[in-house]
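Quick one, T. Sequence first:
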Amino acid sequence: MTAADTPPVRDPELPGRLLAAERDVLIPLLRGRPEHDFEVRTCCPGWTVRHVLAHCSAALSRVVESRYEEDVFSPEANDRDIAERSGRSVAEIVDELERGMTDAGPVIAKAGGALDGVGLGWGSPHALKAVGEGARGRRTGRLGRARSVRGCPSGARARPVGVDHP
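Structure tokens:
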């Protein structure tokens, strides 16, 4: 047997450690930005930095609270999550994001790998939806091809806050 034949060993704590490390750097940066920086467009069509933060905070809150509704992580649910946070201040959204980045690690660790993508940043909308379906006890079948969320390519990242876009 070679190293290539050896299955990788899952480190259940890795996603939580990554979230904590990102939180420790990202949250102070976000708290130090003026309000108008959160209205900058991102590479996700129609989404501003504020929308991306609202989406991320909502997704992490769902994981922490084990809230996996019928259409969880669908584009429609993402739109609802963002709309629900439209009346909140940026500070409130960042507070929720910080709580999610702090509290999601233990939940992800206990999920046996099903939620690792949330903490590692590689969860596609289909994978996250399958996690929600699995959490509700339904068989999910194959995940299929990753699709975009409102046109945002899987794996795409928001551009840095304060950078002008064409």
